[in-house]
Design goal:
- The chain is globular.
- It has a 12-stranded antiparallel β-sheet.
- It contains 3 helices and 12 strands; from the N terminus they run E-E-E-E-H-E-E-E-H-E-E-E-E-E-H.
- The protein has one domain.
- The protein is mainly beta.
Length: 228
């Protein structure tokens, strides 16, 4: 399934399929102190209560406050959305294996481990580790059919999988914001690494930004950007 960003923004946009159906609405509120909270919800919230339509919210890091995720999909302190929710640090949910690597891992609702890699100047690739199968990728592409035929659009392409698509969208937004900030992709504030000390020593297996063909099913690494 291809989800198109209309418009191409991570702060306020709709994720729309090729036939024009809106699947997700993303809205970001900015506060006077400079902090931002992004809400991810289903666009049919008019027919249901706003609370039932909310998939997740992301409170982005500001000054000394780390990015925090709140979602009913998360257990414990992370499941309450809104002011009542404590949330889970994004750097804990999307964790590192190696100190200076921008690559992030998480365990999905299917109990499988997944990896997000940043693709320099292109997008991100999500891979299921036990099968090394690419589950999702983002890119800018020229549309040849459907509602957006003849236009260039940013898309999130998701393959059929056991992982909840809501989890894919939530984790993608965190990773894509980091990638755009590092590539100079239009975010006003360049983000720092929220976990500069890392989440473990590791052996250094070459995780990092990569130049790859997003249509290559193996997602093979062909380049390195270096440490952050």
């Amino acid at each position: 399934m291809d989800l198109f960003f209309v418009p191409n923004s991570l702060e306020n946009t709709l994720l729309v399929s090729a036939n024009g159906v809106a699947h997700y609405q993303i809205q970001t509120t900015s506060f006077r102190n400079g902090s931002q909270i992004t809400l991810i919800q289903r666009p049919d919230f008019i027919e249901s209560s706003p609370e039932e339509s909310v998939i997740a919210e992301i409170e982005w890091h500001h000054k000394n406050t780390p990015t925090v995720i709140r979602s009913p999909m998360l257990g414990g302190v992370g499941q309450c959305v809104g002011s009542r929710g404590v949330g889970v640090k994004a750097s804990k949910y999307l964790y590192k294996r190696h100190r200076f690597s921008p690559v992030r891992y998480f365990v999905g609702d299917d109990a499988k481990e997944y990896r997000w890699k940043l693709v320099r100047n292109t997008g991100c690739i999500l891979t299921r580790l036990d099968t090394n199968r690419d589950i999702a990728c983002s890119m800018t592409t020229a549309c040849v059919e459907g509602l957006f035929a003849g236009e260039r659009k940013q898309i999130l392409r998701i393959q059929p999988c056991a992982l909840d698509i809501d989890v894919v969208v939530l984790t993608f937004l965190v990773m894509e914001r980091k990638r755009r900030a590092r590539d100079g992709g239009g975010l006003e504030e360049v983000e720092r690494d929220e976990d500069p000390q890392g989440d473990g020593g590791g052996s250094g297996d070459g995780d990092g930004d990569v130049d790859v063909d997003v249509n290559d099913e193996n997602g093979a690494d062909s380049g390195m950007l270096g440490e952050i």
